[in-house]
Design goal:
The chain has about 280 residues and is mainly α. The protein has one domain: MetI-like (MetI-like fold, Orthogonal Bundle). It contains 14 helices and no strands. The radius of gyration is 23 Å and the shape is globular. The chain starts with a helix and ends with a helix. The C terminus is likely disordered.
Length: about 280
Amino acid sequence: MLTCSQRIRVGFVHVLVVLLAVLFLAPFYFVLVNSVKSLGEIMVDAASFPQKYLFSNYSKVWDIIRFPKVLGNSVLITVLSVAGIVVLSSMTAYRLARKPTWFNRILFTAFIAAMIIPFQSIMLQLVRVTSLLELRGNLLGILVCYLGFGMSLSVFLFHGFIKSVPFEIEEAAVVDGCSPYGVFWRIVFPLLRPIVMTVVILNGLWIWNDYLLPVLIIGSNKDMTTIPLAVTRFFGQFTKQWDLALAGLTMSVAPIIAVFILLQKYIVEGIVAGSLKG
């Protein structure tokens, strides 16, 4: 039985949670409501419900930005980049954690130091290097860049988690005749599922919503345009088509929200397992 003071505290927490929910959900409300309005109605009152629902905004955006094409590009780039980051960073972190030589310690320090370098400070150099290597305007170039920029944080996360995995398990597998690659993929990697989910979420959200790196590497290659690049065509120098832009933004966030809902069970399990593992 709660006391009066406890009830007040619980009620205060509930009110605070509701206010925070309203605060975070307000942008979604404005995007959804205004995505089915005309441009004139948005300019008059952006907060009200539409007087006439214009679902034709979505069909116009579908045709203008070639949504199936840009959606496929975004999915392809995100899936390949995240998969590459998970595989390479987990293997790298395993080697650095299990073989703490002086060279590996220096290499791990370099990964950590790379996390604090602002992206803006290397943009020009990145464009020059990718141009010299003929990596601009193609799929390989954007994948290489995402692998490079995503490895540092991922290696750091995997490294800390791998050190908590008992080494005796690996020794037992070696005694049973398991190869080094077999030890990692059959024994260690399945135990990394909690941190794998964390790495997938962090890098997946970043890559899916990223605009700056694709605009630098993909550029004007329309065959490789991603959703963030495609939506920007509604924002011109003198005019902004808010009705179509908001419909495009809704279409762009819908797939990643659907993926989050489908993976919510595994995400929660990963967080719980990670907390218990630590």
